[in-house]
Design brief:
Oligomer: single chain
CATH superfamily of one domain: Cytochrome c-like domain
CATH architecture of one domain: Orthogonal Bundle
Strand order of the largest sheet: 1-2
Helix content: 40-55%
Shape: globular
Number of helices: 6
Number of strands: 2
Distance between the termini: 54 Å
Order of helices and strands: HHHEEHHH
Strand content: under 5%
CATH topology of one domain: Cytochrome Bc1 Complex, Chain D, domain 2
């Protein structure tokens, strides 16, 4: 029977590096702009699902995002993300003005695209 040369300590260190590799910096997400995966990553990372329903799952504090393309233009979605109280003074949605331009475009594309 072959002996393993990988001990518990080495496995632990490997898992730490694997975990670090899985945490994608926002720059790598922006590099994958336009892809559905990048948009889904941002949607999850920003916890949009905590308040909004999309594809039948998510919160109900904010309006559902399914079929959003029938209600708002991409420009209006962008405005909502950057300055939510501009469209609705009583909105409790936070501003996402901290997003890089490419991340913002990726998120707008993801939530604005009809994915029914």
């Amino acid at each position: 029977m072959a002996q393993s040369i990988i001990g518990p300590g080495l496995i632990f260190v490997g898992l730490i590096f694997l975990g670090m590799a899985c945490q994608q910096p926002s720059g790598s997400i922006a590099n994958r702009a336009g892809s559905s995966l990048a948009g889904a990553d941002l949607y999850q990372r920003l916890a949009c699902h905590g308040c909004h329903r999309l594809h039948g799952t998510g919160g109900t504090l904010g309006p559902p995002l399914d079929r959003l393309h029938l209600q708002l233009s991409p420009s209006e979605v962008e405005t909502q993300l950057l300055a939510p109280r501009r469209r609705q003074v009583t909105s409790r949605m936070p501003s996402f003005a901290f997003l890089r331009a490419q991340e913002l475009r990726t998120l707008v594309t993801y939530i604005h695209t009809d994915q029914d």
